[in-house]
Amino acid sequence: MWHQKTLSLKPRTRGFHLITAEIEANIPELKTIKTGLAHLFIKHTSASLTLNENADPDVQTDLETHFSKTAPENAPYYRHCCEGSDDMPAHIKCSLLGASLTIPVTNGRFNLGTWQGIYLCEHRNRAGSRQVVITLNGE
Amino acid sequence: MWHQKTLSLKPRTRGFHLITAEIEANIPELKTIKTGLAHLFIKHTSASLTLNENADPDVQTDLETHFSKTAPENAPYYRHCCEGSDDMPAHIKCSLLGASLTIPVTNGRFNLGTWQGIYLCEHRNRAGSRQVVITLNGE
Amino acid sequence: MWHQKTLSLKPRTRGFHLITAEIEANIPELKTIKTGLAHLFIKHTSASLTLNENADPDVQTDLETHFSKTAPENAPYYRHCCEGSDDMPAHIKCSLLGASLTIPVTNGRFNLGTWQGIYLCEHRNRAGSRQVVITLNGE
Questions:
Q1: What would the CATH number be for the domain defined by C2-138?
Q2: Is residue C136 within 8 Å of residue C35, measured between CB atoms?
């Protein structure tokens, strides 16, 4: 059994945002899968998906601070500067964090740990809606 | 053909640990799959899974040293400090390294390269058993 | 429907290289899948796969510069030095960037964003051909 759809996520500010509820609300098909996998894929090179803590919002703030120190704006060696000082750091963060997540599905639900949530990592200062392709496969 | 099960890994000390043999010993169902994929998913936000060299244990030590320099304890900008100085670095490492691996299955075995092994990356100083959901799909 | 094959990629110099066209040219089976997933897996611990911008080659240069600063050669704490000064950095980059990609397949094509391309990240100074296992699954 295969289901595939593209979601347009609500635009977010730069940073790390918990989107588990927004994803789940858009895939009622999840309930029909007893055993399988859910694949989430973001179609961009300046935003990422990751899993991290779903409880304390300070984790999200600290992740944004950390990754923006790791991939700083205006590094003297950047050649790719034409799209703004936040653009090359966004590309680096994309490869560090990744464009996709694969999550086990068990009895119609994401089989996440108690503390795990799905994050949209928005790396641009001003971004619009992000497209995520969701592919569900199972029985 | 779908198989899914949850393993409780033996507790490990902080660091990078080769667990290929422990994983394989717990999924005899792998042998029944001629062509497919194996998905390994860790249900935690302070431990990760990765693939790296299976030969020289110095690689494991150097990875632990490197990632603990990249995501240091007690960085002055951390806000999320309530769970110990090793906690926020653990969350950063989780997003850097990732919670899951997908490995091709060929003729009943993981189709890994000669030097590739499955690592549990334990980011906490004192951790218990970690839960890994294994999903096998193939024909 | 399952298809699986191993490609030997052309050898590349150290750095980040766009390989979308080389991959697509070798999997005509992709056209037979209406809805599914493509899994690409590199069987090495000193080269990686990632997705990033397919337009400006400066992005590739900046990624190589950034990751070689993040995981420098000859760090004083490295123990694993026997295979050359580029070897331990290569292992670190492998775990940072990852050995595999999963890409949605829609109507016989990779469902990538406009700006997304598949990169081979070659971390060694002198490397031969790299093996990539491609697994296609869908209906």
A1: 2.60.120.460
A2: no
